[in-house]
Amino acid sequence: MRRRDFLALSLGAAAAIGCVANKNAVLVKKTKTASHSVQTPAIVAPQAEEYASNDVLEDGIGSSGATPKDHLTIIEEARNIEPIIAVGDELELLKSAFKRLNDVQKHIGFGNFNVINFDAMISVAKASKTVGAFTQAELEYLEALFFRDAKEYGFFGAKVTDKLTASIEQKEVFKVPQTGHYLYKGQAAKVYESVKKDIGDTIVMTSGVRGVPKQFHLFLAKTLECKGNYSEASHSLAPAGYSYHGIGDFDVGKIGFGEKNFTQDFAQTKEYEKLMQLGYIAIRYPRGNPFGVYFEPWHVEVV
Ligand SMILES: [Zn+2]
Which residues, in sequence order, are bridge partners of residue 242? Predict the structure, then answer.
């Protein structure tokens, strides 16, 4: 089997690019005026310090502000939709649900939070005095968001996890030493081993398996950064249920490259070049693709 057959780079849920909406309001074309296009109240996006330190290495966290021109083209051409923005009560629920998710992550630790399922998350919150139970409204909000068709707000990728309560079986994954992340045994593990062997010691996994709560956490953090704008958030981060990290994909980076691993800068590294040269990489969605998602050179497609 050619390597190309089982390993490819994709651009699913690009991340550290940040919330473009904050920098350039014309990115999403307005084709019609809709009632939800009301002004968003100014909110304070969560500060980086609120996250666990290695969250900086995760999709959606650690904005670099890098916005190569082709991204603008992608958005203008492919995402010709009215932005969907959380306001009022919905924005409040978004904030409180995010805070509780964040507290659960702090409580159980970053590694465990990567793979916890929705029901276990609810139990953990309830049992913890510092977190406190999710309110009915918060749960209904998360559930509604999970089952909402992401195409409505402009994310055109496939839904790969359709159960809100989907579990990651402990026996199917293993913790990758020194990363705080998990990988699926089998194909994903093989691909990672192969990448490390061929690229060398400077390559490391920066994000592995992510369950539904983890993807919620990342997506809501990004949405808050985008002042409640789901459409802008989904340019650079897959909504919960839509991430291939749920079913086997992972991200790689260069050791010591920090946050820049989640920027277009990674595509300038020797590691990236080597991945290309060795035929590991096929681009699932080329730059300027019609799916409305950014080019994400650090994301390894396994599934
Ligand atoms: Zn990824």
Answer: none
CB count in 10 Å sphere of residue 259: 16
Cβ(118)–Cβ(146) below 8 Å:
no
Instruction: State the residue for tokens 């940040």.
Output: 18
| pTM reported for the whole predicted model | 0.76
110, amino acid identity: F
pLDDT at 235: 84
State the Cα–Cα distance between residues 125 and 107, nearest whole angstrom: 9
Distance 282 CA to ligand 1 centre (A): 15
Q: Counting Cβ atoms within 10 Å, is residue 87 exposed (0-12), middle (13-18) or buried (19+)?
A: middle
Residue 236: what residue type?
Answer: S
Per the structure, how many domains does the chain have? 1
Distance 12 CA to ligand 1 centre (A): 7
Calculate how far, in angstroms, residue 244's C-alpha sits from the geometric centre of ligand 1: 8
Q: Give residue 168 CA to ligand 1 midpoint distance, Å.
A: 17
Q: Among 79, 68, 73, which Cα is nearest to 16's?
A: 68
Q: Which helix (H) or strand (E) holds 196?
A: helix 187-199
Could you list the residue range(s) of the whole structural domain that residue 59 is in? 3-301
The stretches in the chain having pLDDT less than 50 are: 1-16, 21-69, 77
CA–centroid distance, residue 27 to ligand 1 (Å):
23
Over its C-alpha atoms, the chain yields an Rg (Å, rounded) of 18
Q: How far apart are CA 183 and CA 209, in angstroms?
A: 5
Read off the DSSP letter of residue 173. Answer: E
- Per-residue confidence (pLDDT) for residue 51, from 0 to 100: 29
Q: How far apart are CA 181 and CA 70, in angstroms?
A: 31
Residue in the structure block whose two tokens are 């946050």: 259
